[in-house]
Amino acid sequence: MANLGYPFTLGVASGEPAPDSVIIWTRLAPDPFGLDPARPGGMSERPVPVRWQVAEDQRFTRIAASGTAQAQHAWAHSVHVKVDGLRPAADYYYRFTVSAPFKNNEMSAVGRTRTAPARESRDPVRFAVASCQRYEHGHFTALRHIAEAGPDVVLHLGDYIYEGGKPAVPQPGRYVRPLEPPERSCRSLHDYRNRYARYRTDPDLRAAHAAAPWLPVWDDHEVRENYAGGLPGDGTDPGAFLRRRAAAYKAYYEHFPLRVRPVGNGLRMYRWRPYGAIADFLLLDGRQHREPGDMLGRAQEEWLTGRLRDSSARWKVLVQPLFFGRRMFPDGSLSDDAWDAFPAQRARILDTGGGGLVVLGGDVHNHWACDLGDDSARPVGVEFVTSSVSSAPPGTDNAAILAANAHIRFHDGHRGHLEGKAGPEGFEVAYRTVEFVDRPGAPMGTAAVFGVEGDRLKRLDI
Ligand code: FE
Ligand code: CA
Fold it and tell me: For FRET with 245, which of 61, 79, 102, 315 sits at 20 to 30 Å CA-CA?
């Protein structure tokens, strides 16, 4: 085999932190947008040994763990290493090295990760929340600001990639940078792999992964717009769609440091990630298990309500992709793709929430904040909805939506992300904004800061 160029073009990542372990990830892709489906990332069929190191310091003088993983062609030469025996609430640094078949001994960038706190810990948790990063719509400047802040954990609410291609009709101002060749919509495993490669070659996205462990959930665009369970949403053949979905889920796994692998045509994404006695992060899958009248599917709902009932954490945080609360449009209509289409299941979840329920949502490409529940005399929790990192906002009349929904307390139309802090006393969220995404380098602003008091929103001084 010819000697290959630099393999760590897609960077490094870590995720799924526990008090004593974390998953670290990389993928070998010397030719990230290679057009040959038999050679993902420009790699042949041969497995490649990848050495990894985890250290307590950035110069790797105090090694905490090390080993070798085999990068396999069947998984696009991605590696997922579960690193055990770590200390809770501790920073670690990690890197990967390879030699043959590469031209030189090659070393990856260094990533920083952090384990979750011990179960009894009452230390505050600092997190960032992002969603909806359409590559061709703009630069990922919000993610650059997340990388610079270096939170304990990054919660990503989905629409991590968008499956679409270059629009047939030019959309001025909405296609500010090109997708990977041939700029078409993703259908095959190879298409999805190259789309992830397009995103991961973005320096801001790579920096955000290298700066902190992530806990991601997915939404529709990781597969296809508005899909629901095994149905594509446009009446086309479900068998063909299920094969496409399986390809998309496999490519997703190949690019994230997850604890689970795809099984059959599914990938278990709903999960519980405790952060000490402070926060139980409950990560939801609003797509894979969808049925008529039911967003989560019965098994996931039973799991969720059981977790909510059993939780003794100060804050129970639903990490999920969509707008959760009621949001009536000015003409009286409701979304048929978000929680407003599943009011009975939403009501059952709110009934078991107890105190300290916080929902994080995305999908709508604007910042929002709302009180949850139908009865303002009986508050049941709050919702913080993050704007898009780059995806263009919808043409909704947001002032009229605010006027039509008394429980929706805040809107801002910038692109951006959320920064949060959960502690024994309070839960605070700052709505971060960027002025522009059509070029890099927008400074970060703050549109508002909210806390939670008596399971209601409370606006705080910036
Ligand atoms: Fe989106
Ligand atoms: Ca979406």
Answer: 79
**2: confidence class by pLDDT, cuts 50, 70, 90:** low
What's the whole-model pTM score? 0.98
Could you read off the pLDDT of 289-328 as tens digits, one per residue?
999 889 999 999 999 999 999 999 999 999 999 999 999 9
Q: Tokens 């932190």 map to which residue? A: 17
Distance 81 CA to ligand 1 centre (A): 30
With beta carbons less than 8 A apart as the criterion, state whether 353 and 373 touch.
no
Collect residues with CB below 5 Å from ion ligand 2. 159, 219-220, 363
Interval between CA 269 and ligand 1 midpoint (Å): 19
Q: If you measure from the C-alpha of residue 237 to the centroid of ligand 2, how many angstroms do you get, rounded to a whole number?
A: 22
Query: Would you state the structure tokens that stand for residue 90, as one six-digit string?
Result: 């501790």
Rounded distance from Cα 347 to ligand 1 centre (Å): 25
Q: DSSP character for 245?
A: H
Question: Which ligand has the nearest atom to the CA of 387?
Answer: 1
Residue 1 predicted with pLDDT over 60? no
Q: How far is the CA of 130 from the centre of ligand 2 (A)?
A: 13
Q: Closest-lying ligand to the alpha carbon of 131?
A: 1
| Topology of the domain comprising 1-115 | Immunoglobulin-like (2.60.40)
- Residue 417's SS3 state is strand
CATH architecture designation of domain 118-459? 4-Layer Sandwich (3.60)
End-to-end Cα, the chain, rounded Å: 58
Ligand approaching nearest to the C-alpha of 225: 2
Nearest by Cα to 101 from 36, 52, 42: 42
Q: Where are the domains of the chain?
A: 1-115, 118-459
Instruction: Give 279-293 pLDDT, tens digit per residue.
Output: 999 999 999 999 988
